[in-house]
Design goal:
With 235 residues, the chain is mainly α. It has one domain: Orthogonal Bundle (Fic-like fold), CATH 1.10.3290.10. The protein is built from eleven helices and no strands. The chain has helices at 16-28, 31-35, 38-55, 62-71, 80-98, 105-116, 125-139, 145-159, 166-180, 193-206, 210-229. Helix 5 (80-98) packs parallel to helix 9 (166-180). The longest helix has 20 residues, at 210-229. The N and C termini lie far apart (54 Å).
Length: 235
């Protein structure tokens, strides 16, 4: 499958009705209120790390992942790379919550370095740089914050700018983009991993984002429901 630079051209993703629905969820589960709720930050932070790792085939259970992230104890019989992946994802999540809002190559490389503990560009560096510039320049022209976040995610994953850890970097950049637009983060849900992977494959094959959009909306809906279950937003 050859790289198709036309996929990097922006096409609107979310309809007006879908955007309104996401905005309504943001009113219920706002970024500001989320960041002020330590329990929700802790819960969604763990969910982001654990599910992101699961997408990559990580073998840690939820209990083992929690023990590692909270107490630093690794699970017997599990690979060092699985533990390192979880710890790096945790560092990356904390980084985007505390660092300045900027969507540029320096920030992408910094996040990748945190997640992968290295920086190894793939071959044909000149082409990669020009295509990365196109992605970043195009993103700055997108007014719809959800479109912008998903455009960045899909194209960063598709470009394969790094030798590895592209999808993890893309998911983290998606959330940084949302934060920069004062929108609630998107926390991937374990039940939607298949939908996420289908979305990635669909984009790789034909440059369309129907499945990615489905993943985005369902994740937001699930997050809202979970927040309500633990009493978020109640007086």
């Amino acid at each position: 499958m050859n790289f198709n630079s036309d996929f990097l051209n922006y096409q609107p993703i979310f309809t007006a009705e879908e955007t309104k629905k996401l905005d309504e969820i943001n009113e219920t589960l706002s970024l500001k209120a989320f960041l002020e709720n330590k329990n929700l930050v802790k819960k969604f932070g763990f969910d982001f790390v654990y599910t992101s790792a699961k997408i990559e085939g990580n073998t840690y259970s939820k209990a083992d992942a929690l023990t590692l992230l909270e107490y630093g104890r690794t699970s017997g019989g599990k690979s060092y790379s699985d533990a390192k992946m979880l710890l790096n994802l945790q560092k990356g999540f904390k980084f985007i919550l505390t660092d300045d809002c900027a969507i540029n190559k320096y920030k992408i490389r910094t996040i990748h370095h945190i997640l992968a503990s290295d920086y190894i560009p793939t071959s044909d560096a000149l082409t990669l740089e020009s295509q990365m510039d196109k992605i970043l320049d195009t993103a700055q022209t997108i007014d719809n914050p959800y479109d912008k976040a998903l455009y960045l995610h899909n194209n960063l994953a598709y470009l394969q700018y790094f030798a590895d850890v592209n999808k993890r970097t893309a998911r983290t950049m998606l959330n940084l983009s949302l934060i920069c637009d004062n929108k609630m983060l998107l926390i991937p849900q374990e039940a939607l991993i298949v939908t996420y992977i289908e979305g990635i494959l669909e984009y790789y094959e034909n440059g369309t984002a129907d499945k990615s959009k489905e993943f985005f909306i369902k994740s937001y809906e699930s997050m809202e429901a979970q927040a309500k279950e633990i009493g978020y937003g109640k007086e």
